[in-house]
């Protein structure tokens, strides 16, 4: 936490956050849905302090009271958007369940190293009060409320609306968007109050992606390819930016951290592209493709071409570097974005993936002329799956990586990860000139969990991080 008197949670600015304390523990949701283990998902607390006797170990597990929730992403009851409010404290982790539509509120304030459940919001509250289901991204608001994007309606069809929770009682208040204005699909969102704007993205209809990916569902219109622009003050949907086939399945959206910025980036999974979105002189918004990872022609796979499948992106707090993961190709890339329209590749590292050179898939043509990577082995453990969720340290020098995307897709693309569990790795970052190097001494192996191999997903720091904090 920032050291001052009378201030609220988080940090005064993104650059102040970069001077914040080094992370000592992290929280990760661990999933058993779609594995052979019939146990509840749980929240793991992992020690990441190098001089600790329990370094790289899970030091606490908080099981949920239900089965098959599919814990996924998490957020906070309060963050840097509440920095000016001394009555607020970042002491509750908001933990939505992607499939059960249940929302857990976790007490991380009483004992940060041993969280406990504070409250549960049952699915019926989302269904009947909001007509929404499949909650995904949670952000705290400067008002003190909590806003959660949803991907569907209770029947499994796509519906991109937003649930508001009361920041004190955590009761469902209602919808953020106006009646009839929900987007066709939902997924992620980010808001920038100084410009009175919010932008949301699209994954697909929950019933289509429930147990795996079928390319025919893309052709059938079950997956999204648009950004939605919202008026932050009036909650009206102002504009839909259609990205086209090149922008199919736009997932994580990141504004630049500078609250004065009128631009950001979105990673589009299906074609391996990154689009820059930005405000036009007349006040409307548009987007342009600025990065493209070419697919590789392959033999021995489900399709003749394999996309990189960009599944997570983030921006360093000083807005200098963009990072993303290619879950199928198996690499993480670092781009210098000081020229916002022309990102420059400055770092790359392979961590598993589908095209390792001793696997069943042969690359027959690669426009980037890269050799098939060697399997990645860390401390004797072969990394199953590919790099997926990313979290950057506040100072920008350490990148944490997990390998599970979503249990239904893990099971389809990386069945070895279902059997062996996912892993968490750490990349050392050259935050001066650029460059990525695997830390060979860091590994958290979720294949060795007491109840059996688990799928660990998103990484969150107790004091906030570059994917949960928004400055107003």
UniProtKB/TrEMBL annotation:
Xref: InterPro entries: Se-bd (IPR008826), WD40/YVTN_repeat-like_dom_sf (IPR015943)
Family to which this protein belongs: Belongs to the selenium-binding protein family.
Source domain of life: Eukaryota
Pfam families, sorted: SBP56
Phylogenetic placement of the source organism: Eukaryota, Metazoa, Chordata, Craniata, Vertebrata
EC number: 1.8.3.4
Role of this protein: Catalyzes the oxidation of methanethiol, an organosulfur compound known to be produced in substantial amounts by gut bacteria. Selenium-binding protein which may be involved in the sensing of reactive xenobiotics in the cytoplasm. May be involved in intra-Golgi protein transport.
GO CC terms, sorted: cytosol; membrane; nucleus
Protein name, per record: Methanethiol oxidase
């Amino acid at each position: 936490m920032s050291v001052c008197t009378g201030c609220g949670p988080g940090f005064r600015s993104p650059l102040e956050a970069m001077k914040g304390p080094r992370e000592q523990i992290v929280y990760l949701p661990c999933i058993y849905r779609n594995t052979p283990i019939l146990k509840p998902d749980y929240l793991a607390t992992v020690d990441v302090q190098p001089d600790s006797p329990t370094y790289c170990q899970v030091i606490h597990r908080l099981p949920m009271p239900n089965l098959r929730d599919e814990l996924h992403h998490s957020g906070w009851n309060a963050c840097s958007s509440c920095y000016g409010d001394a009555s607020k404290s970042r002491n509750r982790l908001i933990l939505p369940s992607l499939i059960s539509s249940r929302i857990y509120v976790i007490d991380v304030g009483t004992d940060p190293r041993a969280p406990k459940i504070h409250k549960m919001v049952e699915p019926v509250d989302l269904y009947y009060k909001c007509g929404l289901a499949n909650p995904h991204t949670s952000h705290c608001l400067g008002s003190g409320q909590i806003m959660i994007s949803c991907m569907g309606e209770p029947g499994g069809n796509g519906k991109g609306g937003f649930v508001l929770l009361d920041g004190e009682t955590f009761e469902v208040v209602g919808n953020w968007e106006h009646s009839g204005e929900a987007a066709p699909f939902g997924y992620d969102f980010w808001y920038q109050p100084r410009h009175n704007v919010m932008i949301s993205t699209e994954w697909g209809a929950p019933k289509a992606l429930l147990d795996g990916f079928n390319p025919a569902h893309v052709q059938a219109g079950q997956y999204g390819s648009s950004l939605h622009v919202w008026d932050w003050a009036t909650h009206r949907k102002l504009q839909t930016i259609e990205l086209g086939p090149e922008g199919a399945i736009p997932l994580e959206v990141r504004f630049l951290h500078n609250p004065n910025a009128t631009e950001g980036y979105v990673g589009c999974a299906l074609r391996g592209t990154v689009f820059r979105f930005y405000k036009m002189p007349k006040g409307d918004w548009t987007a342009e493709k600025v990065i493209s990872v070419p697919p590789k022609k392959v033999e021995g796979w489900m399709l003749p071409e394999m996309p990189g499948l960009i599944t997570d992106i983030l921006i360093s707090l000083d807005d200098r570097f963009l990072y993303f993961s290619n879950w199928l190709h198996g690499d993480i890339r670092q781009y210098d974005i000081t020229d916002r329209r022309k990102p420059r590749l400055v770092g790359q590292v392979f961590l598993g993936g589908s095209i390792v050179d001793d696997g069943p898939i042969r690359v027959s043509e690669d426009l980037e002329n890269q050799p098939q990577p060697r399997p990645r082995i860390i401390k004797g453990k072969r990394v199953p799956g590919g790099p997926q969720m990313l979290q950057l340290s506040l100072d920008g020098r350490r990148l944490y990586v997990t390998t599970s995307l979503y249990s239904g897709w893990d099971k389809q693309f990386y069945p070895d990860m279902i059997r062996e569990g996912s892993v968490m790795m750490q990349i050392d970052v050259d935050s001066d000139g650029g460059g990525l190097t695997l830390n060979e001494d860091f590994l958290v192996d979720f294949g060795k969990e007491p109840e059996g191999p688990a799928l660990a997903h998103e990484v969150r720091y107790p004091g906030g991080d570059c994917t949960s904090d928004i400055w107003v």
